[in-house]
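Hey team,

Sharing the DUF2291 domain-containing protein run so nobody has to redo it. Sequence (212 residues) first:
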Amino acid sequence: MVHRFVVGIALTLALAVPLAGCKIVPISEDGAQEEAGFDAAGYASAIWSERGFAHFGDTAQPVTEVLPAISADLSVAGPQYGSRAGEGSPWSFVVTGTGTVVEKNTESRAGTMVVELDDATGSLQAMLQIGPVIRGNAVRDALPFVSFKDFINQLEFADAGKALTALALEGVSGSIEELKVGDQIAFTGAMSIANTSDRMLITPVVLEKTGP
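Structure output:
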């Protein structure tokens, strides 16, 4: 009886020794540690200053041409005016234009500004996202040198998109606060369109008042 008791104690101690030097980390905590390794803000800042912001000025197409073309036939407008990551992905468009602010909607956190466009055939309006909540990742997706394959996982890709959008919004936030209905403006921004039923929301990267 004593012999069995001693053996039992010895076995318990033997099993406890290897566990004493181990740290048990919950799966969720371990995942958080991996994600913490990606500096989305730093990545976005480097991309933006080196070539991201300049890309919009270099590639922007007249919004008065792009919007009617999308409405007429996205399958034609996409290759002509836009780009996309691959078959089945949304089309990304970089557009620029001028016009008069006719609506400024800030009741929702996903605020918008409606612009009556200059030089359009007939009456044509564009809707700009002014936040603070911005829908989608149009800014990220308009940059052909930002690719999903460059990231470890979907979370990093999404975080990069949020950080790039935040930089774009930061650059136009002063104008957003100042602008009011009746002001004349110039803008450059990005749109992401999967099909013609999507709202044509432009996320501005340049937004400035040009007249009263």
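The helical segments are 2-20, 27-35, 40-59, 63-72, 74-81, 138-141, 154-178.

Ping me if you want the raw files.
A.
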